[in-house]
Amino acid sequence: MHLKRPVGPILAFLAVLATPLAAQNGSIRGQVVDSVTQQGLGGATVELVFRSTGLTVQPGRQIMTDAEGRFTMSDVVPGAVTVKATRIGYGPQQHEVNVTAGGTADARFVLAPQASVLEPVVVTGYGSQRREAITGSVSTVDGNVANVGVKTNAVQLLEGRAAGVNIIQNSGEPGSGAQVLIRGGSSLSATNEPLYVIDGVPINNVPTEPQSAGVVGDPSLPRNPLNLINPGDISSITVLKDASATAIYGSRASNGVVLIETKRGNASSGPTFEYDGYVSTSSPARRLEVLNGAEYRAFVTDQVAAWRTDSTAFCGRHPTCAADTSVHYPDSAAAFDGLQPSHLGTLGTANTNWADAISRSSVTHNHNLSFAGGTEATRYRASLNYANQKGVTLSSGLERIQGRLSATHSDLNNRLRMELNVTTSRVNNTYLTYENNGGFEGGVFENVATFNPTQPITVTDSTGTRFYEVGGTTIRNPVALADQIINIGQTTRTLANGTVSLDLTPGLTAKVTVGFDLSGGQRQEYYPLSNPVGQAVGGGMARQSDLENQTQTVQTVLNYQRQLGNNTLDFVGGYEYSKFHKDSVIAQGIGFFTDAFSFNNLNAATTRTNLSGASDARLASFFGRANVGFNDRFYVTGVLRYDGSSRFAEGNKWAAFPGISGSWHLSQESFMQSGPFSDLRVRLGWGLQGNPSVDPYTSLITLAGNTGAAYPWGDQAHGGVLATSNGNPDLKWEQTSQIDGAVDFSIMNNRISGTVEYFHKNTKDLLLTIDVPQPALNSTQLKNVGRLSGHGFEVTLDALAISRPSLRWRAGLVFAAERTKVEDLGGSSFISTGFISGQGQSNAVSQRIMPGQPIGTFFGPAFLGVDASGKQVFACTSATAGCVNGQTTLGRGTAEADYRILGNANPDFTLGFHSEITWNRFDVSFLVRAAVGQDVFNNTALVYSTKGNALQDKNFLRPAISDPIGIHEPAIFSSLWVEDASFVRLQNITVGYDLNLPVLTRSARSARLYVSADNLILLTGYSGLDPEVFTTNGLATRGLDYLTYPRPRTITGGMRLLF
Amino acid sequence: MKRLSVTKSLGAAGLATLLLLPVQACTDLSENPPSLITSETFFHNEAEVLAGLAGVYAQLRSTAPEGGIYDANEVSTDEVVVPIRGQDWIDGGQWIDLHNHTWTPGSAAARAFFNGAWNSAYTGVARANLFVSAVENATVPNKARYVAEGRALRAFYYYILMDMFGGVPIVTTTEVGANPRSTRRELFDFIEGELIAARDSGLPATWGAADNGRFTKGGTDAILANMYLNAGIFTKDGAGAGGINAAAYNSCSGVTVSGGQDACAAAIAASDRLLNSGNYQLADSFPQNFRFDNFKSPENIFVVKFIAGDGLGMNLTMAALHYCQYAPLTPWNGFATLAQTFYAFDPTDQRRKVILSGPQSDVLTGQPATVRVSGACPATWTPATSLVFTDSIRDIGLATEGEGPRIYKWPADPAHVSQNSGNDFAWFRLGEIYLIKAEALNEQTPGSAAALALLNTLRNRNGHPVAPALAGPITRDLIIKERLFELFGEQKRRQDLIRFGQYTGRTDAASGMVGGKQASAAHYILMAIPQTQMDANPLLTQNPGY
User: Fold this and answer.
1) Which residues in chain B have their CB less than 8 angstroms from residue A890's CB?
2) Which residues lie below 8 Å from residue A406, measured CB to CB, with a gap of 6+?
């Protein structure tokens, strides 16, 4: 490209400058200790700052202390040097020492514990920065602190620990995906997922396993692609929240960036061997409360009695009516209330609690083995993980085998550094057939709610024992569904990256990173003949699908750091190129004469279908970041990224994303020295980010042959072609601009520290699939229309409440309040969304996206009560037909004009509170999360907390039995079903004990036992299974609860041994 | 030292090379889809042209049961009602909204049915536009015939839009963009011109068996005959003074169409071209027009073709039948008809048999059908579980499983593939042409004996009568009734009720015949333009009254 020409000669010139440095150096040795306990601090970083002689900072000249806190740094250029020691959880300290040629200088550091547990050096994208130089909004979570309880993926480590990062697990299913919203999200139809960067390489976070066939309801949601990373390998997660920090990732950064750093080997503490493992047991925290067998029998019996009573008048006219219902009378139409006597025939004698029948107490175990070590020049860490998580519902689970190797090597006096990280994982998923949304037909959870509780799970007769089925194709034994339908997936994913960096001249470093991400996912399904689902499809259905994703990334980065007097300069510039490829194949067979083949022999099927597809995309970027520090008081960062994506239309493929931010370290000023602040800083930033999540080829008019285009003239189907997309030659990036202002402070000698932050953002050119003026080949088109805005307030507080030799108590609080608003929909007055699931709810919607309102606004009829005849009464205006005294019932028709806003799915604020107490050898930590003010539409209750289910011999949820709504009244969405879903959850509590057994002290460096509980307490007024809900049912839908996989309550016992 | 410095230089040079390599790879961001094609690379030979044509025809399926067009045309009349049955069929209130004429541009019925109808018909237009412009620029055999076929199909899709919405934007290019509405008269003239041009520039009079179902000259004449009969409606933009009369008959008489002809005369002329062509005749058996093998019916003029194949079949059967009368499928137990419509038929009229009422049996096996027990259909029938369709629906908001007579005009295909039956749907068959000619004659000469003779020919069906002969004298009332008996369920009722000034009238007469609606305002004669379409195209104006 046009930048190629200038870059080449500069690099060649720099290569010539790469000359060796002089020899005959000295060394520094010493110890780092805790100011409270006076014990050595292992894992502290000691680095050279060289300030006093004005020499340039020598990147990489840092060393970790060993377990006793000791260090020796050799090969130091002689002179008066400043040495600084830092460690997570402690305030830094620095000393000036005089290094002589061939001599050894001593340095001792006494570090005071401080409130916040923060890494002194923060990964910020294409490099790292000292914390004090950071001018953007960045949250860091320590992997070891957050990795408690059962965590299957990296995202779970962030829950409740980073302000403004809201994470909702899709469900309680093992390995389920999660919705991650950083600062409320900034998009309607494009993704709201942040960009994930693992060890510096951006990850293409797309599903790695093919979708299920979805024979019953919609197919299950994909599992989390991040399951490939073992949380035990994560050293830290950094979240870049504001635009000035994320702008370095440009087009992919509008939803924030999550930087995941993995653990590396450490030479100074010698070789280590670690075992970390746990066993846990889980059970569903709540279950669907359905009528039991006795209650259902009593209900049906009562309703049949009511039918006879109410039908007296009719039967008076036709005396044979009760005896012979086959006779057709002109006035027999629904002359009956209650249930016909035939329903008595459906009652069995069993008492089956179907919610219990599909639930189980499950055991999860997880084992990590790692060893690490090396020399000053070569370090390594290798780890192996085995995890086996069984779901709390039958036939669901996840098994992971993962290996990881990380090695670093330095040469040429530490001027050449190489790093290699390879992770390979195999995840075996077992899926339960259940519904995320959908209509008439149901999977496991719908049938738990509706299957007749007076019938047994299995029946035994002369032909043997088999599952009890009613014979209907839409009502199925849920245990049989879970047991008989085979739905499994396997993903093998390898993530590899290699980095070479070379110090070209003092301060100037060049780095090349090559990354590969290869995943192959497979789905295998079989719907057997022996199950009604398999029968209904046409005699058994088998399906095998494959999905392969490849991402290749190359980065070249130049980094220049220089100290000029009291001023610092840090420049990063580079180029990145990523290539994405996807292949998919589906083969399906329907019609088997036996279940013996399962999914292994599609040839045996009478009808076979094959599908395949492929797509490519590329992304090329140039970026630069300059960070200038003035006198250790002012820092200014400027960022510019220039991104080109193949997914956009010609002429719109390239865009620039700038960011600028600054900070003022007020506490360094003389006028602040006497104040209450031990540290005080203000920050301000602005930036522009993009969202490129557009499917490839969306800008082109494309034709495809498919069944929809075939036509049978002459009674033979003729293959046809139709346009799959209108194309949009103007398609471009969705852009978000964001302003962020913050104050970072510490008081009481860093015992309390915190950040108060405010942001405001605007998204324009929203990527939105909207209706186009007809005639058009496709009724909709992806266009850049509309605007969203958001603003919010975040507070992070950390306190070191107690710090004594035997007792230390650290506590932290994160608070966030966000408001997003739709500003403009490009001409549309509103977009209906939030499709309602369940029988009889086709095309029914619960939400509207409207200018002036937030995303997730519930809209519908307002429920007033129930009239004497059991009909639901809704509010109306007098102008509407059938509206009497501002009230109407469905028979008259509720009119759209009477609909109103019923609620908002976004919380007023969210809270996370975590605390870690160490008392002698005991430690206790807990995490509490809360969200206040959000509404949830209980779609499960709408369609299953309805007596009318009994008309079709379906069970229902217990609350319906006492409500006054009539048995013939259908399920109508209204304000009745929109509930406040505020909650407080004790997410995790862990108690640990540091073993000091004689047998261990001889060999093990440390040994810890712990017991942990997840989801132990949930306080909420919400009547459904869980107030935290996730849905994909319509554009930008939030807050719909429909038959989710129940969240487990988990008790874990674990052990960590370090040798 | 020397060795070290060589290593260093090599390392530096290697790194510099590495830095340069990727920069060269980035220049190309153009897209080349591996599993899709673009229109520039297509329509180069006759096989590809036929594939394009199949796509234009394929959109016809959306105009037949089941789709937004059929639902809007039928459920908004007294022919079909979809009552709420317990937990089923509330569907956001869309069926009640449609049946009761309470829709607004953004209400449930508009979202589900009108928007679907608008998009379905216009997608057909867009596919035809792409096809016609591509073929006009291609060098293929039979080019004129392909272009004529594309234009005739496009005219039919516009005919549907004109019928439902009035004047709509007329676009014949492939460009997507906002265009203003035409008047209904302009659209009428455009469709008329296109049909005549297609007829006279290449459409064949008949096709061989291998092409059964493709557009013929007869197809264009049938649409024209229907348009001329409705000219009193189709040339006016709305109800009110000088426009459509919502409460009285709207005659073709006095409306001038192409060539300065009176519309009634034009309707008779178009009908005569069909009746005298020798290509069509009444089927001896009325049901032959609707069975799975109805492609053989000599009455078919323009049909939507269906075959028993996945995604290619008709499934109206599923919408109407009870769960337990079409084993092993589970139909949806929805569509019913109104008691007053059912009783409007003479019990001796064979054509009433297309409505199911009373005790029921499985439509394929003939075994007595049952109601559902425990959500399933019991294996054995007993009097207590007998399935009975009542003649009426007490409350369409609270109906039971067995309430209401059912429309069963297109019987299930014994060779059905899942829900897909092979019955074709005739948009125009010769039976209607008899009725069109009779009605136009009666407009020219009220009480016309020739008109009565046409109705009685239709009833007699080549000596296989479906109903006793009418005594006469012929009246408009006799004609609309005959149209109901003959064309029940065939998407003609809405047109007929509007033409006869009865569409917005009250249908829940006081006789205990329930399930109907209150009188609605005159503006409901035209469907509302859906709000989503108003939003998408700022140049659209809403129909008056909404």
Assistant:
1) 84, 90, 93, 96, 397
2) A262, A263, A264, A265, A380, A381, A382, A419, A420, A421, A422
Contact flag A331-B512 (C-beta cutoff 8 Å): yes
Query: Chain A: residue nearest B91 by CA?
Result: A841
Q: If you measure CA to CA, which chain B residue comes closest to A11? A: B16
Structure tokens at B221: 């004449």
Return d(Cα B58, Cα A708) in angstroms, integer.
7
Residues on chain A touching B176 (C-beta within 8 angstroms): 726, 772-773, 775-776, 781
pTM: 0.84
Shortest Cα–Cα distance, B92 to chain A (Å)? 4
Residues of B in contact with A842 (CB under 8 A): 91-92, 94
Cβ atoms A624, A605 nearer than 8 A: no
Question: A334 and B97 in contact by Cβ < 8 A?
Answer: no
Lowest-confidence pick of A378-387, A463-472, B3-12, B282-291? B3-12
Q: What are the tokens at A317? A: 């006219």
Q: Could you give the percent of chain B with pLDDT greater than 70?
A: 93
Any idea what DSSP says for residue A444?
Answer: H
The rounded distance, in Å, linking the Cα atoms of B112 and B119 is 11
Q: How far apart are CA B494 and CA B490, in angstroms?
A: 10
Residues of chain A with Cβ-Cβ distance to B376 below 8 Å are 470-472, 475
Nearest C-alpha in B relative to A848: B106
Cβ neighbors of A125 (< 8 A, separation 6 or more) are A197, A240, A245, A246, A248, A249, A257, A259, A625
Helix (H, G, I), strand (E, B) or coil at A427: strand
User: 């009108």: which residue's tokens?
Assistant: B114
How does the average pLDDT of chain B come out, rounded? Answer: 88
Preceding amide of A6 cis, omega within 30: no
Of B58, B84, B533, the CB nearest to A771: B533
**Which chain A residue is nearest to residue B84, measuring alpha carbons?**
A970
Asked whether A809 and A846 are in contact (CB, 8 A), the reply is no
ipTM at complex level = 0.89
Nearest to A1019 by CA among A991, A978, A980, A977: A980
Chain A hits for B15, CB-CB cut-off 8 Å, are 15, 500, 502, 510, 512
Instruction: Provide, rounded to the nearest whole percent, the portion of chain A with pLDDT above 70.
Output: 90
Q: A316: how many CB neighbours lie within 10 A of its CB?
A: 9
Compute the distance between CA of residue A946 and CA of residue A949 in angstroms, rounded to an integer: 6
Q: Mean pLDDT of all residues in chain A?
A: 84
Q: Name the residue in chain A with its Cα closest to that of B4.
A: A412
Burial of A387 (0-12, 13-18, 19+ CB in 10 A): buried
pLDDT in tens, A935-958: 999 999 999 998 888 888 889 999
Highest mean pLDDT among A123-132, A708-717, A752-761, B370-379: A752-761
Average pLDDT of the segment spanning A225-252: 85
Total residues belonging to chain B: 546
The residue with tokens 């507070």 is A795
Write the CB contacts of A96 (distance below 8 Å, at least 6 apart in sequence).
A52, A80, A81, A82, A83
> ∠ CA(A277), CA(A281), CA(A284), 5° rounding?
140
Q: Which residues make Cβ contacts (< 8 Å) with residue A414, sequence separation at least 6?
A: A60, A61, A75, A377
User: Average of pLDDT values for A187-192?
Assistant: 75
Residues 137-176, chain B, touching A (beta carbon < 8 A) = 169, 171, 176
Give residue A254's pLDDT.
81
Greater confidence (A203 vs B374) lies with A203
Q: Do A510 and B48 touch (CB under 8 A)?
A: no
- At residue A11, the pLDDT reads 41
